[in-house]
């Protein structure tokens, strides 16, 4: 795993596609029949990208504090957002936009100093060879009960067609990895409809890495990816290994006119802190309108998040996962040397916040964004018996930021936590 990814902490996900024309759910709307395939594809005629400005996007993402971005080059609908030789189904060939959105995006993202990520759906519900085999090659008892975009309906598998499809995916991916300079990250989706063997793994991965040995690939690669991608539901327990939580700002990945179910900036910051506290990244999604404009409410969230990050930068990029929630409930991060603990305070305390089980002596407590020094005291415990007391750090409303406040605790040495269930104090002073 490349070091840059773990230090990046924030990425911006972009679901941009023809689905923004009518504001329907990306690909799933025709898959589940809420719109016919023909009407869905008719959105190509209304896709103009008339105000698409990749430099503006890149600048906005940079201001948000993100260190990488990931754009949909092709969703499950099979519509390429770039100029592919291997299919006519692209916004370049089939829409009034007639431009290579992916190419413009990659150039701008790189110029802004961010790492380049590209989303690619392995499954393609438009490709004539895709629905040729069943998951894991097993014919179900009721073949007609499946979905015609994913698998054959008559119980007959066509292995040759499937091999042609694999060649197609590989050819498109080669275009993405070789036509636009270095791509840093491939974000796959839709692996679940086939097994690793059907995808031709692990050779498929070797093939992709042959174009760029530093390429990072997410885990939606039938078990052959480099990091985990929990989605929409924030992990409650710390995932094992490297991970990134992807989520939407409202409830939709792509632009949907009627979706007003927005998270507030405070909620987004809270979620970001939760990711940091458990050592993960946040991949925050925007859904641009068909003309390429990012909805103002989403833009405002990105700018607000950026302001918060700049005020608290010390607790972000160079931090590692903090102490578990039973020691401090709102989440925390540590400096790499483990001698500074940053506590997230999401709400306004009436009197103090408390940390339990901390064995270290605290040398200083400050509010990170203002530098204000805070008083603190330890009550209880018997340190001579290795039983820590409760650390109370005094702070109230006047110390708080607009959104999550960060308290910086400097410790005497590397953080040490008590992990017992309490004990009798056998020697008293
Ligand atoms: O089906 C997609 C969905 O539309 C969206 O692209 C998300 C983003 O992670 N991925 C899939 C579901 O896991």
Q: Which ligands accompany this protein?
A: ligand FHN
Strand content: 15-25%
> How many β-strands, per DSSP?
15
CATH class category name of the largest domain: Alpha Beta
Total separate domains = 2
- The global form is elongated
Number of DSSP helical runs = 12
- Overall mean pLDDT stands at 97
| Helix content percent band | 10-25%
Q: Roughly how many Å is the radius of gyration? A: 25 Å
- The CATH architecture assignment of the largest domain turns out to be Alpha-Beta Barrel
- Measured between the Cα atoms of the first and last residue, the distance is 51 Å
- Helix-strand string: HEHHHHEHHEHEHHEEHEHEEEEEEEE
- CATH superfamily grouping of the largest domain: Glycosidases
Named CATH topology of the largest domain: TIM Barrel
Describe this structure in words.
By secondary structure, this protein is an alpha/beta fold. It folds into 2 domains: 309 residues, Glycosidases (TIM Barrel), CATH 3.20.20; 93 residues, Immunoglobulin-like (Sandwich), CATH 2.60.40.1180. It is 25% helix and 18% strand. The protein is built from 12 helices and 15 strands. Strands 5-4-3-2-1-7-6 form a 7-stranded parallel β-sheet. A 5-stranded antiparallel β-sheet has the order 8-9-10-15-12. Strands 11-14-13 form a 3-stranded antiparallel β-sheet, with no helix packed on it. The longest helix has 20 residues. It is elongated. The structure holds ligand FHN. Ligand FHN binds next to loops.
């Amino acid at each position: 795993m490349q070091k840059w990814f773990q230090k990046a902490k924030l990425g911006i996900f972009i679901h941009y596609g023809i689905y923004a024309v009518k504001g329907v759910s990306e690909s799933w709307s025709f898959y589940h029949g809420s719109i016919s395939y023909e009407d869905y594809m008719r959105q190509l005629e209304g896709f103009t990208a008339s105000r698409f400005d990749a430099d503006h996007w890149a600048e906005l993402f940079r201001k948000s504090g993100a260190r990488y971005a990931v754009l949909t080059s092709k969703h499950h609908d099979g519509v390429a957002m770039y100029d592919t030789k291997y299919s006519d189904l692209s916004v370049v060939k089939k829409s009034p936009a007639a431009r290579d959105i992916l190419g413009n995006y990659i150039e701008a993202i790189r110029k802004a100093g961010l790492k380049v990520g590209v989303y690619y759906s392995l499954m393609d519900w438009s490709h004539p060879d895709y629905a040729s085999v069943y998951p894991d090659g097993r014919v179900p008892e009721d073949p007609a009960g499946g979905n015609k975009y994913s698998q054959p309906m008559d119980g007959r598998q066509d292995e040759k067609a499937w091999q042609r499809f694999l060649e197609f995916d590989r050819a498109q991916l080669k275009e993405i990895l070789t036509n636009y300079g270095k791509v840093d990250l491939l974000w796959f989706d839709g692996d679940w409809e086939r097994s690793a063997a059907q995808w031709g793994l692990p050779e498929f991965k070797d093939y992709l890495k042959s174009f760029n040995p530093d390429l990072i690939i997410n885990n939606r690669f039938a078990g052959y990816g480099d990091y985990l991608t929990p989605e929409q539901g924030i992990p409650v327990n710390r995932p094992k290994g490297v991970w990134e939580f992807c989520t939407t700002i409202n409830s939709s990945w792509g632009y949907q006119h009627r979706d007003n179910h927005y998270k507030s900036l405070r909620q987004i910051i809270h979620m970001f802190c939760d990711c940091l506290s458990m050592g993960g990244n946040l991949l925050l999604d925007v859904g641009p309108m068909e003309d390429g404009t990012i909805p103002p409410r989403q833009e405002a969230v990105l700018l607000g998040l950026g302001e918060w990050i700049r005020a608290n930068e010390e607790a972000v990029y160079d931090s590692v996962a903090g102490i578990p929630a039973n020691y401090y409930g709102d989440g925390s991060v540590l400096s790499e040397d483990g001698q500074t603990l940053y506590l997230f305070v999401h709400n306004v305390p009436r009197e103090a916040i408390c940390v339990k089980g901390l064995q270290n002596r605290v040398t200083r407590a400050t509010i990170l964004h203002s530098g204000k020094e805070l008083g603190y005291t330890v009550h209880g415990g018997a340190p001579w018996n290795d039983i820590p007391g409760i650390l109370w750090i005094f702070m109230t409303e006047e110390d708080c930021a607009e959104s999550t406040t960060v308290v910086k605790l400097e410790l005497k040495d590397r953080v040490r936590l008590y992990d017992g269930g309490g004990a009798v104090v056998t020697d008293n002073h």
